[in-house]
Structure of NAD(P)-dependent alcohol dehydrogenase:
Amino acid sequence: MSTMKAAVMTGIRKIEIQDVPKPEIKPDEVLVKIKHVGICGSDIHYYEYGNIGDYVIKPPFILGHESGGEVVELGADVKNLKVGDQVALEPGIPCGECEVCKRGDYHLCNDVKFLATPPYDGVFAEYIAYPENMAFKLPEGCDTVEGAMIEPLDVALHALDLAGAKIGESALVFGCGCIGLLIIKTLQAAGVKEIYAVDVLEPRIKKAEELGVKAVWNGKTDDVIEQLMKATNGRGVDMAFEAAGTVKTTQQTIAAIAKGGRIVITGMAAEETIPVDIIGLVCKEGKIFSQFRYKNLYPKGIKLVADKSIDVKDVISDTCRLEDLPEMFEKCINEKDKVIKAVVEL
């Protein structure tokens, strides 16, 4: 049996580089040599705690779901890809048969097989066998680093779709990690120029400033709502995006929006219950949208990156080889003030 190298989680905060069986493809699958994988916040959480809610890791387990690679073998029924094509892999494989799949909301499928979500292994490995219809060809000039970044970009694109962002509107983004920064970039590409941002970590605040937002406030030391009202003459913003995943920022979204404003909850706070100012929301006739992943956005994300509308590479702060992944996970935990986005090279 052929083998490949993989980063295998063997316990809480334990990853070993092991030889594991190389996958064999089915007729509708392609074998992809993985080239780049992004480290997501969910990967870090699984590594540090062993679970996210009811999803519990049972070692041995392989993390990683943001990937780009090269097709090296074709199944008998594959029609649209060829050996040598570079691809980005959409990590959720839906059933295609349930109610939500049939109405187009396949990201909400109860039976979705999502990479690196127990019990399904991820792609911190040299190869993966994957359905052709969820492997999206990268055009000329778009590399596999960008291919790995399409997944977080699609999270940002879905947030904008939910908010119904329009040219000339205003927005406040809570959290300037990878997703928050990509929301800023997608807002700018959509013609939203009046953007404010909030974070508590200086490197992220600095990065948001580099992107040209109107103002960035430190959530620990600044009265964010007071500063926002000064900046907007007491109006607030048309859209507030919660990408920090905290109770405080979730609560602040209601105070931040203007009358008739919209809120998108992209981040996920650890607390199951968050008290919010419903009366304040009602009096503004504000709208709250919750977000779960994305749908039907891989082709759009790839096009936006390929035509240089959105640069996804400049949010990457760290890279490492597969063999150095254990150390990179520890850095993501112990030096989170320095790491915005890490990408693994295989």
